[in-house]
Amino acid sequence: MNKRLILTLCMIGLGAALALTAVPGPARTTEKPKTALFVWGGWEGHEPKQCVDIFAPILEAEGFKVEISHSLDSYLDLDKLKKLDLIVHIFTMAEIKPEQERNLEEAVKSGVGLAGWHGGLADAHRSNVEYEFMVGGQWVAHPGGVIDYNVDITKPDDPIVKGLKRRFPMKSEQYYMQVDPLDEVLATTTFSGQYAPWIKGVVMPVVWKKHYGQGRVFYTSLGHVAADFNVPEAREIVKRGLLWAARVIQ
Ligand SMILES: [Zn+2]
Predict the structure, then answer these.
(1) So what's the pLDDT on residue 29?
(2) Tens-place pLDDT, residues 50-78
(3) How far apart are CA 179 and CA 203, in angstroms?
(4) How remote is the CA of residue 191 from the centroid of ligand 1, in Å?
(5) Does the predicted model carry a pTM greater than 0.70?
(6) If exposure means fewest CB atoms within 10 Å of the residue's CB, which of 4, 86, 113, 207 is most exposed?
(7) What is the number of other CB atoms lying within 10 angstroms of the CB of residue 179?
(8) Dist CA 226 CA 91 (whole Å)
């Protein structure tokens, strides 16, 4: 191999290396990394840990510094909470102590994002109305249990659902909820009435976003069990919802 060829090969190699390093990765090296706290627990039937184990790595791949907690005592340090970008709260049918609840609400009110799915967020603390005021809805029934139903995207231009199939099927619990008119609804489901004839034709929110004070709140009723997130649309909606609540996407 002559010297010129070696030099040329070296330059090609250097160029390729530079091109590789120039590819913008998800981690924003010049900015402070976003921070997210997952707090999971409550009813095990909702597989809270398995679900968190799906989305925590997704946020890490987006450059987030992620902390995972199995205790509501993580809410006792309000100053720490207020420095977070996002809290993911997954705690079906559990008691929350007044100080824990108050700090969670104060943090979100101050601008920290809040996100969650299914009963983990919207059937977490049934007797805590301020908490429900923050979330924007509360589960009340899933007629028929695990059934086949469709989800319809109703705001296709919203970044959280943009480009997804306008209608996709789920085999899961179809959540009937009491919802806040403030919710900006991005997807709905329509009840057939097969399991509760008087609700035939009712159109129910499945995905919404809203504010509580300065904080962004994202919710979807999808995600009864971790396998529900094998549906690509369900997984993508939660991923983007978390990013929206953390102000990564507008
Ligand atoms: Zn469920």
Answers:
(1) 55
(2) 999 999 999 999 999 999 999 999 999 99
(3) 12
(4) 17
(5) yes
(6) 4
(7) 18
(8) 14
